[in-house]
Backbone:
């Protein structure tokens, strides 16, 4: 692990005085290592005697393994072993949030979907392992499969309620809709999408002196270590997981299949084993955003005041683990209405298990809700910004709880001002530049904020330095740097005196880099540790040679929190150009205004928000996992086939924020990781409507869909 | 087979190279230079971009044998040992163009090459030139800023001469 | 990847001889397609014969206005060549519209012509594909074929040829020169790719072991006023959904000479002869361009999910020809 020290910007930025670090732009602590190629990711760390494992994936969508010709492979050059359901260590039920069937790898002969790991070939070199994996003949008894998702699928069942957010049943939705003069009733679909973090998942596992050591690519080493210990029936004390540098995660880097298999192989072969996934394997084995089909019914009076929101969603899950894509969250909190109803259906199919993908629930949910709001604005004849302002709630519309802070209206107003919204002709199809039709759109988004229990320690040294130890993960978010700033202010010292140790399960219990709650959770623990340290330092004359350590644990404080509605909010504006001859859609500019609590490091927070908006652009126009219905297999599982936005797709894009004071946690942090993607796709689709006069209710807004639906509004 | 090549100004020799290895593999696994990243292994993301005989290529698609007797520059070779970070490295750092960092090595090599051939690129030049380097974190905006910053700084330096 | 051998050929005769001596050999140019397919297991040659050192890397301008392009000229060098940009601008534009800078720096002209299809069923060895495994079936016909062929396909394969460069070559009557153990030969580019029929695995009409040495473009004054336009989901760095290479010469408002080829709509770059015939001597108007497109596209047989390609091609062809006509009128 490298100790890193906060450095001020070198481009003339002012070094803040002690106590004012939070809120100043800071380049990232590990930036130098990353630009020189010195940063070591999970697949970069060498080990003596390292062997390499290669996954073998199922090629049928449902069935049983009837035979596996391991003998032929074991005779191949360099091959050290084949791990399969006949020899794999038995696993205990375990998972990040309850037992997870995805992690029960190589435990039996069942095949639940195409792309399920069925064996791991281990060899001296990666190529030998790859050759062995390619040569491993697996035969299956195939069974009829069902991989085609639709909302009315007979296997669909109501999702279990989210602990903190049961299905909404406010007022009488049907009565309000029946009585309302204006009703929008539409269906929206979003496709299977893939996280596509640039670093493919990789793990190295080895046993050393009776202890299990793991170098991993994950979003939370402490929680991963805990799952690993439970899974393999080990004392967590002997399991150490580190993930110093992680090449993006976006929700996909929990306990990866490569990690479980690496531990199995290291255990069986008694030597270090690294398993690095190929891009294709990442597509098949590390989760996805499930396809959704959502029905939105909005009813309003003639001025656009909402009388009813009825949001029903369905998404698929696998047959081995129930994942619920909670698309209706925002419908509980975005707008005031007399009646609000939400329903969520899960459809188990012979497909890989979905998982959290950036803005889980919100990214697809906001597409439906915010598209429907735009349709309502059109139907009522009210400006879409004004429509939203008219339905601004004063408290949680369903829960009745106060907002910890909100400021969505400020986002809308400031965003509209900067974007030049006032000059917009509301009629579609009125702006033309040569073969391009231009249009603008707006949409809002939200994502739940909060903090989860974490611990931290800070050690003061005699040399005047402070070492912060917290089980945080920095998957590119800038958490390492943000926490150094938080610590500096909490200690009342300059950031340059703070050293950071993160991404190591030995640093104590800590929440995941997930749910936009990482930095808030860790910051709170760091703040608590700083308070403890200051008390301890007050009682000593001088710092002893081994230092003085303060500790923080937020479990009790978080448990004592009052109930409130806590969300980050955003309003996004987009301008698109649509080619009337080809249907090509190009985004020309985007602006996002956010209310996301206190911004710790403007430099990295802005990057997070712009990155989220760009992933939203990508979702709006490009991303779509294409599955063959007869085979159940993904047929675009590489970057040539699965398109994420490239540089030329991304226009002038700006993210900024309004003042948003949330004093429900001591750092005031709400999180910026997810809210950036909430609403983007709707803003773009709404802009396409404004350009063309056609509503696109199916993502992505592909050129064939645009072309075939025509340009009825073009003048 | 034996492969001899120059990497970042140093002669390297790798023995027992299997013909099927890529240049990327040789760099990462045999020469201890893991700065170049393997993110797609099919030339679709640019994370493995290196300069091969002064021309940026995807090292994942160069067969090891093809690298024999050739000159390679990787991200590890961009910095001038005497003066610290290369201008593009400093600009990426300062502009916040680095997030998870996995696409960064390839982007730096590609950007360095762009600015050698086109010291004052337009935004459209930059977007097109770097479209072979996928990034999932940044949204590219800060990368654009970084390239502009590097170009502006080198312009200032040139002006002072 | 299986074990295989690598060798650098010193001259054309040596390369051809080495190929003949090694069953299962493949010529290696830039490697941007072949090395990729070797990793995924689609290709498993036993010997790679590196042909980049054969001195085939020059673009020569004929005195009569034509060009001879060496087989190992990289895409980047081809697009940057002043003679190409002047005489065949659509060719330079097509090359620059393809792939990324890194790939164009490595990819060669010969390799570009011989690149394999990008169909998702072809590139994943766990899926059936007649082109990869004859007789295994073509799931794309009833499956994911949103970007597949509307012209010239058979039920055995509906994949499209992915080349951009090839579309311009098709428009300009390129001729492919090759070398075999029995001596040199030539083949019209239009004949390089046989019809798919029931033999989609038979991808070229070259004699066994032939090494492409050059691609020649005959003089074509009309090509100086040519354009390549590519439609794609991403703004850059994506294979075409459809593309058009067009050249137009108008005299007194009447089409005097026209060249048209389509990309991403058939198993080969599609020379639009019917459209050319319909246009020659016709007024250079959008209406005539549209009628010509209809004449060409009468043969289109879209699949259930790619019918959009027909109006797309029509619009694209009319748009590009209209632009060329307007520029000629200025």
Residues:
């Amino acid at each position: 692990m490298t100790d890193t020290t906060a450095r001020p910007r070198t481009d003339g930025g002012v070094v803040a005085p002690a106590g004012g670090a939070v809120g100043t732009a800071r380049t990232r602590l590990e930036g130098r290592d990353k630009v020189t190629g010195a940063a070591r990711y999970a697949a970069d760390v060498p080990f003596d005697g390292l062997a390499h494992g290669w996954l073998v994936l199922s090629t049928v969508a449902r069935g049983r393994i009837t035979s596996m010709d391991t003998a032929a492979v074991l005779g191949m050059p360099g091959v050290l072993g084949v791990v399969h359901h006949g020899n794999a260590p038995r696993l205990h039920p375990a998972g990040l949030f309850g037992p997870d069937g995805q992690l029960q790898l190589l435990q039996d002969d069942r095949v639940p979907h195409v792309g399920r790991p069925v064996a791991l070939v281990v060899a001296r070199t990666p190529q030998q392992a790859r050759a062995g994996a390619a040569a491993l003949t697996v035969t299956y008894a195939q069974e009829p499969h069902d991989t085609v998702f639709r909302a009315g699928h007979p296997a669909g069942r109501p999702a279990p309620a989210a602990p903190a957010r049961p299905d909404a049943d406010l007022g009488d939705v049907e009565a309000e809709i029946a009585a309302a003069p204006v009703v929008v009733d539409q269906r929206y679909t979003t496709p299977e999408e893939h996280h596509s973090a640039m670093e493919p998942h990789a793990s190295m596992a080895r046993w050393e002196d009776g202890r299990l050591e793991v170098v991993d690519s994950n979003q939370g080493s402490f929680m991963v270590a805990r799952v690993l210990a439970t899974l393999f029936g080990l004392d967590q004390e002997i399991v150490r997981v580190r993930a110093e540098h992680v090449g993006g995660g976006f929700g996909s880097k929990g306990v990866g299949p490569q990690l479980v298999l690496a531990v199995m192989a290291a255990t069986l072969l008694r030597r270090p084993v690294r398993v690095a996934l190929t891009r294709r394997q990442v597509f098949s084995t590390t989760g996805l955003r499930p396809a959704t089909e959502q029905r939105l019914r909005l009813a309003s009076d003639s001025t656009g005041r909402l009388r009813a929101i009825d949001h029903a969603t369905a998404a698929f899950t696998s047959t081995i683990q129930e994942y619920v894509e909670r698309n209706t969250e925002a419908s509980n909190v975005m707008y005031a209405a007399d009646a609000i109803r939400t329903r969520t259906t899960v459809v188990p199919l012979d497909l890989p298990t979905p998982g959290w993908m950036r803005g889980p629930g919100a990214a697809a949910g906001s597409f439906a809700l915010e598209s429907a709001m735009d349709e309502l604005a059109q139907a009522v004849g009210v400006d879409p910004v004004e429509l939203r302002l008219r339905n601004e709630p004063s408290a949680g519309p369903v829960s009745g709880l106060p907002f910890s802070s909100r400021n969505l209206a400020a986002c809308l107003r400031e965003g509209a001002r900067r974007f030049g919204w006032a000059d917009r002709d509301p009629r579609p199809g009125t702006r033309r530049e040569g073969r391009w039709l231009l249009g603008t759109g707006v949409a809002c988004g939200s994502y739940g904020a909060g903090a989860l229990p974490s611990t931290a320690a800070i050690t003061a040294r005699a040399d005047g330095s402070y070492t912060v130890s917290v089980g945080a993960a920095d998957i590119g978010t800038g958490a390492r740097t943000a926490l150094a700033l938080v610590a500096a202010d909490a200690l009342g010292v300059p950031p340059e005196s703070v050293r950071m140790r993160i991404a190591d399960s030995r640093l104590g219990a800590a929440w995941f880099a997930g749910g936009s709650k990482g930095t808030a959770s860790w910051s709170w623990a760091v703040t608590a540790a700083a308070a403890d340290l200051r008390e301890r330092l007050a009682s000593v004359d001088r710092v002893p040679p081994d230092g003085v350590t303060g500790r923080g644990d937020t479990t009790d404080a978080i448990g004592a929190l009052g109930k409130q509605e806590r969300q980050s909010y955003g309003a996004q504006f987009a301008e698109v150009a649509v080619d009337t001859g080809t249907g090509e859609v190009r985004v020309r500019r985007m602006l996002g205004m956010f209310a996301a609590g206190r911004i710790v490091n403007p430099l990295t927070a802005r990057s997070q928000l712009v990155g989220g908006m760009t992933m939203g652009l990508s979702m709006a126009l490009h991303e779509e996992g294409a599955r063959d219905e007869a085979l159940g297999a993904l047929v675009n599982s590489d970057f040539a086939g699965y398109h994420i936005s490239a540089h030329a797709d991304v226009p002038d894009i700006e993210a900024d924020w309004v003042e948003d004071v949330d004093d429900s946690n001591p750092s005031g942090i709400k999180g910026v990781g997810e809210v950036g993607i909430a609403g983007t796709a709707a803003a773009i689709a709404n802009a396409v409507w404004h350009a063309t006069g056609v509503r696109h209710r199916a993502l992505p807004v592909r050129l064939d869909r645009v072309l075939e639906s025509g340009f009825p509004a073009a003048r | 087979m034996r492969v001899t090549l120059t990497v970042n100004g140093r002669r390297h020799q790798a023995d027992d190279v299997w013909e099927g290895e890529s240049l990327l593999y040789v760099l990462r696994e045999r020469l201890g230079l893991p700065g170049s990243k393997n993110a797609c292994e099919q030339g679709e993301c640019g994370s493995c971009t290196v300069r091969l005989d002064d021309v940026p290529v995807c090292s994942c698609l160069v067969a090891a044998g093809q690298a024999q007797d050739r000159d390679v520059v990787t991200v590890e070779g961009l910095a001038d040992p005497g003066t610290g970070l290369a201008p593009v490295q400093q600009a990426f750092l300062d502009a916040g163009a680095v997030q998870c960092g996995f696409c960064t090595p390839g982007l730096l090599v590609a950007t360095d090459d762009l600015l050698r051939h086109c010291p004052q690129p337009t935004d459209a030049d930059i977007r097109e030139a770097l479209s072979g380097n996928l990034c999932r974190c940044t949204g590219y905006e800060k990368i654009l800023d970084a390239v502009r910053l590097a170009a502006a700084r080198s312009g200032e330096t040139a002006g002072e001469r | 990847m299986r074990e295989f051998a690598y060798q650098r050929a010193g001259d054309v005769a040596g390369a051809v001889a080495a190929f003949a001596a090694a069953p299962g050999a493949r010529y290696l140019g830039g490697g941007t397609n072949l090395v990729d397919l070797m990793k995924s297991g689609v290709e498993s040659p036993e010997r790679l014969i590196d042909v980049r050192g054969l001195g085939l890397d020059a673009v020569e301008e004929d005195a009569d206005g034509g060009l001879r392009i060496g087989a190992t000229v990289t895409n980047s060098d081809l697009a940057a060549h002043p003679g190409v940009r002047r005489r065949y601008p659509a060719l330079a534009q097509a090359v620059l519209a393809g792939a990324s800078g890194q790939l164009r720096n490595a990819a060669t002209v010969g390799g570009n012509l011989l690149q394999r299809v990008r169909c998702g069923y072809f590139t994943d060895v766990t899926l059936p594909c007649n082109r990869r495994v004859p007789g295994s079936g073509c799931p794309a016909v009833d499956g994911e074929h949103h970007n597949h062929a509307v012209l010239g396909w058979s039920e055995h394969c509906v994949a499209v040829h992915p080349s951009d460069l090839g579309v311009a070559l098709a428009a300009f009557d390129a001729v492919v020169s090759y070398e075999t153990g029995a001596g040199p030969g030539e083949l019209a580019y239009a004949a390089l790719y046989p019809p798919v029929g029931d033999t989609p695995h038979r991808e070229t009409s070259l004699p066994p072991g032939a090494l492409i040495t050059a691609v020649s473009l005959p003089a074509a004054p009309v090509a100086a006023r040519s354009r390549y336009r590519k439609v794609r989901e991403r703004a850059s760095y994506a294979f075409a959904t459809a593309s058009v290479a067009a050249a137009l010469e108008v005299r007194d408002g009447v089409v005097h000479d026209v060249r048209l080829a389509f990309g991403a709509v058939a198993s080969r770059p599609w020379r639009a002869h019917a459209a050319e015939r319909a246009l020659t001597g016709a007024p250079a108007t959008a209406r005539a361009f549209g009628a010509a497109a209809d004449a060409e596209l009468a043969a289109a047989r879209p699949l259930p999910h790619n019918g959009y390609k027909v109006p797309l091609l029509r619009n694209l062809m009319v748009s590009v020809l209209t632009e060329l006509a307007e520029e000629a009128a200025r």
